[in-house]
Amino acid sequence: MANAVSPLAVPLPELPPLAGVRLSATAAGIRYQGRTDVVMMEVAPGSTVAGVFTTNKCPGAPVDWCRASLKGGKARMVVVNAGNANVFTGKAGRDACSATASAAAKLADCSAKQVFVASTGVIGEVLPHDKLVAALPTLHETLGDNGWEAAARGIMTTDTFPKAATRTATIGDTGVRITGIAKGSGMIAPDMATMLCFVFTDAKIPADALQAMLSKGVEGSFNCTTVDSDTSTSDTVLLIATGQAKHPRIPSADDNGARKRMLADFRKALDEVLLDLALQVVRDGEGAQKLVRIDVTGASNPRSAKKIAMAVANSPLVKTAVAGEDANWGRIVMAVGKSGEPANRDTLSVGVGGVWMAREGAVVPGYDEAPVVAHMKGKEVEIAIDLGLGRGKATVWTCDLTHAYIDINGSYRS
Amino acid sequence: MANAVSPLAVPLPELPPLAGVRLSATAAGIRYQGRTDVVMMEVAPGSTVAGVFTTNKCPGAPVDWCRASLKGGKARMVVVNAGNANVFTGKAGRDACSATASAAAKLADCSAKQVFVASTGVIGEVLPHDKLVAALPTLHETLGDNGWEAAARGIMTTDTFPKAATRTATIGDTGVRITGIAKGSGMIAPDMATMLCFVFTDAKIPADALQAMLSKGVEGSFNCTTVDSDTSTSDTVLLIATGQAKHPRIPSADDNGARKRMLADFRKALDEVLLDLALQVVRDGEGAQKLVRIDVTGASNPRSAKKIAMAVANSPLVKTAVAGEDANWGRIVMAVGKSGEPANRDTLSVGVGGVWMAREGAVVPGYDEAPVVAHMKGKEVEIAIDLGLGRGKATVWTCDLTHAYIDINGSYRS
Lengths: 414, 414
What we know:
Chain A is α+β, with helices and mostly antiparallel strands. Helix content of chain A is 32%, strand content 24%.
């Protein structure tokens, strides 16, 4: 629990109030002692919501609850606890979600379906939702505009630093803001899972437009990162628009061209917030000492490029080589070849830190090793792979695989 | 290099002569000093051969050479070196294969296409085939019936123990023998790759029948094992039949039923040899302290069962939990769910060491922890997963993920 802060940590940015969002955190003693572990995020009436959830076929009860609630497209409240994931808990897990949502709905004077719940922590233990419900009145009374840092800290499990990002954008001539918080670092302590992200904006955007932008944005950010290839049972990203900003009305989906033009700047800022948060999660990957960026070009198509990049990012041999500061291009070749995607040894090039080391089926004769060695000693490592086959490209991010990963995940659970 | 012998090692079995096979090993100084590193295996004229090779799209030059030679269906000689994989070496790599095969063919008085070559070790360095060719006459002069152990040791890279298996079978009323040697332990030292297996029999079996049995046998043995999910660029399994045993003639492929009946006992013994060797490789998995068997039942179909079993076997979180002797069924549920295969949380059961711990979407109330804890402390761990969906089943084997894996693979290459 008292893990040292990741060497890749970034400072929390300044997080100004966002019209229509109030936040609070308190200590409910669900698992941790002496720290906040429950967070409430209340949004203005009429707020629209979009969500993206884990693809794991054994999702937690809160994921099921959110998926069902999302159909309404409206949100008033998000309640999050840390320390217990409420996953694989059967009927008790479903009951915990509905009891929490009902109690929160009474405080917000809304339908339970407008309350979204999220939990991360131990899998397979019943969530003591009485403690959670008992904490709700205090949370409601202490809601405030400046609760962002408290919220970012209250959702942490074994994250080593709080994660947030904020950007501004214009819609028409009106400035709007997008602010998000996230938690996650793989499954850093035994049984602890996993990634949560909550993004808010004061823009007034219909739920369907919000969902389209979020789905696309997650594809290019969170879905392009991996710490250990283990997809959690709790992953949740919610995007909520409070509609408090006074910008021109977003055109309906019928006029898709106009809608796209008006939201272009917003979409760009949203993508930046999502990528910023996703990379903060990788920076807090369990045991991470280095952030690794993998650029694949020249693949048959973009899907193939991403699969190849992910095969490299998830290769334990590549990840241990990075930990050892070894620019081991042979292992990168191996990982490209095992991906199952089209690859031709004789058109393949591999580079590290901007230096091509292997090209056209053999090592580049006399390539300059000095800059490569220096690059590998840094905190951020860049791997380039060109397949020489087509125009497909993709970028993914991961971290190295170190002894700390084994320490964190190989200790006894109880 | 001086790694301690795996705690999961098994002793080398007694390996009697096999009619039509002579073996030798010598020290050619290709990379290692003070140990044998080149092996010759000569088989009787008329021997048939079958082969299965890596699916990696960036295979080594020797794999390309063997694939091409296999079309002839005949073998007279196998030459193997350790320490240099001859992978990603361009034209120099192809030249090394053909020079070695041509020189060996002269000694055996056969076509170069009847010489099979295999190399494992460093990727991306040109194989000094002059040293290899210079060693061939000595190897040829010292060929003998009792060279099995020398051959099993000579093909090792950073394996911690030599690997061999032998069985007898009957064809008609005639006894035949099947003996195989293998090497591999993942990629235990930086850049070292990977899995080689050579199996011989004195039976007289047409190449097409040999190939069919080998392909099926590898599917149920080597292809059901994983150490670190990283598919090497050199994996090679050869099966050679010398035809020296005096059993009734194997019927042609036209009479497939009769052929199958006559080879039933042989096939069973071959499968046992292949599985025995495959498990020896897992027992020598880098850093392995425990051998893990994963039985999946109740899946939609056998392919789905295997994919689920492999997702569990390759999950770093499951593997570190096993290393920590933690029967962490929550991580097993996660890995099942992330496999992408049909799974239903509410019909899923997970057991360890014969005790069902999770069933129907929740923990089994009051299950007996004592036998589970005791089981996890042993050297062999059994995980059972029942999907409750259909009749598909599969079994795979892996090892745990320990600090030694990081030590072995995270050190500097040079």
